[in-house]
Amino acid sequence: MTAGSGGLNRRERAAERVTQEARRCAEFLRARGDYSPQFDYFLDLAENGGIPEAMAEKTGRPVAKLLCIQVPVELVSAAGFHPLKVWSGSPAVSSLTVQGTPALMCPMLRAVLGAVGMKDETRESIWVLPTTCDWVVKFPELASREGRVFSPKMHWLELPHLKDGEHGQKRWLNEVYELKDFLESIGRRVDKKSLAQAIERYQRAWAALSRLSAMRKEGRLAAVWFMLIAGSFFSDSPERWSEAAKKITGSPALDPTEEKARVFLAGSPIFFPNFKIPLLMEEVGLYMASDDLCSSERIIPGAVTYRDSSLHGMMTALAERYHQGCLCPTFIDNDRRINNILGQREGIDFRGVVFHVLKGCHLYDIESRGLEGALKEGGLKFIRLETDYATEDEGNLRTRLEAYRGILGEK
Ligand code: SF4
C-alpha cells in the first residue's frame, strides 16, 4: 500500500465502519420474528466471510476472484481454485473511492473498488473478468488509480453480446476454452474426471438452492433470508454451504393474519448489508415470492446437463448453460427476461413486478423501461425503483411502495 499515514487511517476508519455496518445488519436480522439459529451459519458468512485469505485457508484452495456470475465456476473449481464472486453491499467502503471515479458510478462496483483499495492486488491474486458491462470493463483501470496496486493475474472473458446465433455460441465456447488454458497455466490440468466432479459439486449446491427457492415461493421463507443465504454462497466451500442450506426448514414468513401482496423482484443485484429495498418492501406489505437477481435466485445459473460425457461434451454443455441460460441485460437478444417473468407467473402467482435499478447501472436502467409496457400488457402492476446504497431516499421509496401496495390491492 503506497498511501501515506492519512490514507492508512482513512482505510482503517472505513474498515471499522464496514465491520459495524455488517454487525448492525446481522443484529437487525437476528431480532426478526422469523429468525432462527439455522440462519447463523449464513449470518456469520455474510458478516465475516468474503475475505480471500480466510477462504483459501477454509477451502484449502487458492481463490480466483470473479467479477460476474457468467464465469463457469465448475471450470474454476476443476482447475483447483475456489471461485469467489466479488461483490459488496457496503456503503461505508464506498467512501474510499471518491477521487478518480465518476460521480455516477455503479454503487456495487464502487464498493468493490473500495474493498480492493484496502490492500494491494499483486501477482498472487487471480481475477477473471467477463466483459459484461462498461463498469466491469473499466474496473482494472479504476482499481489501479490513486496509488492502489492492482496487478493480479487477470483473464478477460470476452462476452459475445449476441447469444442466440451460432457465431456467438462458437465464440463463447472458444472463450471458455481460453479460460481453461489460463486456469491450467496457473493451476492444475482440467480433465474429464475433475470437470465431472466439479459439475457434480455445484449441481448439489444448485439443488439445495432450488429447495429454498420453492420454500420461499410457498411462503415458508422470507426473501430477506433467501437473499442472505444465496448471497453467501461463494464465501465457503459449496459442500459446507449446501449442507447448511439443506438444514433450513423454513420459517413462517407469511403471517396469515396479514394480507401481503405477492410480487416479483427484478433488476440490479442486492447484497448484504444493503437490504434497504427488500426490508422496505416487507414493511409496506409486499411478499417477494421470487426474483431474477444475479445476487439471489440466479447466483447459481442452474443445472449443467450433458449427454456427451467427453471433456468437449461437458465444456460445450457448460458454455451453453452460462451463456444461453443467462438473463443479463447485457445481451442484445434478451427476450428471455420478459418470458421468464411472465412464465414464472403461472406457477408462482404474483400480481406485480418491482424493478430495482442501481444508479449508474445503465443496463438494467435501459431494460426496465423496455419491460414496463410488456409487463403491464401482461396484466402485471409495475414499479421501477432507482436508488443507491445511501439511506437518504428511504422516505421517498417507502411512500412510493405504499402507493404501489395500494394499487396491487385493487381488483
Ligand atoms: S450490470 Fe449493473 S450492477 Fe452489475 S456490475 Fe454492471 S452496473 Fe453494476
Structure description:
The structure is a single chain. The chain is an alpha/beta fold and 411 residues long. The protein has a single domain (11-408), classed as Rossmann fold. It contains 17 helices and 8 strands. Helix 1 (5-30) packs antiparallel against helix 2. The longest helix has 26 residues, at 5-30. It starts with a helix and ends with a helix. Iron/sulfur cluster is lined by residues 106, 108-109, 132-133, 135-136, 268-269, 358, 361, 363-364. The site of iron/sulfur cluster has 13 residues, from helix 6, helix 7 and helix 16.
| Each distinct ligand | iron/sulfur cluster
- CATH architecture verdict: 3-Layer(aba) Sandwich
What's the overall average pLDDT, rounded? 90
How many helical elements?
17
- Helix and strand run: HHHEHEHHEHHEHHHHEHEHHEHEH
- How would a crystallographer describe the biggest sheet? 4 strands, parallel
Looking at the structure, what is the overall shape? globular
- Rg over C-alpha atoms, rounded to the nearest angstrom: 21 Å
Instruction: Indicate the percent of residues in helices.
Output: 40-55%
CATH class descriptor: Alpha Beta
Structural class: alpha/beta
Q: Can you tell me the number of structural domains?
A: 1
Q: Kindly identify the CATH topology.
A: Rossmann fold
Number of E-state strands: 8
User: What's the N-to-C terminus distance?
Assistant: 60 Å
Poorly predicted spans:
none
- Estimated share of beta-strand residues: 5-15%
Spatial strand order of the main sheet = 2-1-3-4
